[in-house]
Design a protein that fits this description.
The structure holds two protein chains of two kinds.
Chain A: H1 2-19, H2 23-38, H3 47-55, H4 69-72, E1 80-81, E2 87-88, H5 103-118, H6 124-136
Antiparallel strand pairs in A: 1-2
Helix pairs in contact in A: 2-6, 3-6
Chain B: H1 5-26, H2 39-45, H3 59-67, H4 81-93, H5 101-104, H6 124-129, H7 135-139
């Protein structure tokens, strides 16, 4: 009985966490504003485009890391591994809730990883698409 | 009553011997390097690779490394200046020729701090300790990088680097 009560409390609080405008939603809104400024025809982020970004072998950055999947793995719901053998939590929000809760951290990794895979920083549109993709998984 | 000399002496010997073994085990027989204890350092230095113990390099090495993070062995590992200052302070305070001398002293023997070596894997003692590792072992899919200590040293995260 106590356990059931505790479980429903946890379920309720996580539900409210998911539905409130958390840091991820705020960050997406900021990217959307930037994307709109860059291109007035911007009509929202796309998880499909984000997936394309995730699986494409660009090979434009470091030779070791041609694609996101090099380290993060083909399935966004399973964990990845860096070239030095370090475990990386799955990128899919459904299995790694809270992964995108710190916007400075998200920006830091976009900067590093886009440079390593694409040889340049990602655009706000690409960042938003990517987040839409992992948010949908 | 006669004093039981033999049992007492034997007992003391056994005690002394196990104390010796225990102290060696605790110090890892010279293969123990205290892991990073600071949470910021652990997070920032340990997300791409094992957060290497500060005692494995001299303070000069850490200072130089922290000043070149935008090209960290070919990767952009830059962090914001305030975080960088904190990390540098921790690494310098616990380096192998400062606070961590007790642990890193042997590894850094014959290393001139003025040269500020950047790769732990080029330190003379590191090279000597790994001379028997074959090329194919380094290329093994579970190893790949000499920075992947945990591939062979299962307890590296805890600071133990025995064979």
């Amino acid at each position: 009985m106590k356990l059931r009560l505790a479980l429903s409390c946890i379920a309720l609080s996580s539900y409210s966490l998911l539905t409130s405008a958390g840091p991820l939603e705020q960050q997406l809104a900021a990217y959307a504003t930037e994307a709109k400024t860059a291109n007035p025809a911007f009509a929202g982020f796309s998880a499909a485009r984000g997936e394309q970004l995730y699986i494409t072998r660009f090979g434009l950055g470091k030779p070791d890391t041609p694609a996101c999947t090099t380290c993060h793995g083909n399935d966004p719901r399973t964990s990845g591994e860096t070239l030095t053998g370090k475990h990386i939590d799955p990128v899919a929000l459904s299995v790694s809730p809270g992964r995108y809760a710190d916007s400075a951290k998200v920006e830091k990794w976009f900067r590093r990883n886009c440079n390593e895979v694409l040889g340049r920083e990602c655009t706000p549109l690409e960042k938003g698409d990517w987040l839409a993709f992992v948010g949908s998984r | 009553m006669k004093f039981p000399t033999r049992p007492v002496v034997l007992g003391l010997l056994a005690l002394g011997f196990s104390a010796l073994i225990l102290s060696r085990a605790q110090a890892g027989g010279g293969h123990y390097y205290p892991p990073v204890a600071d949470s910021v350092v652990k997070e920032e230095c340990g997300s791409c690779h094992l957060a290497f113990p500060p005692s494995m390099l001299p303070a000069s090495s850490w200072k130089r490394m922290m000043g070149e993070l935008d090209n960290h062995f070919g990767d952009d590992a830059s962090v914001d200046p305030e975080v960088a200052r904190k990390i540098t302070a921790y690494l310098v305070a616990n380096a192998g020729d400062t606070g961590g001398q007790r642990y890193g002293g042997k590894l850094l023997r014959g290393v001139d701090p003025a040269t500020a070596p950047q790769r732990i894997t080029t330190l003379p003692k590191w090279v000597r300790e790994h001379r028997e590792v074959q090329d194919w072992e380094w290329r093994h899919k579970d190893v790949r990088s000499k920075a992947n200590c945990t591939a062979c040293h299962a307890d590296a995260e805890l600071g133990y680097y025995e064979d």
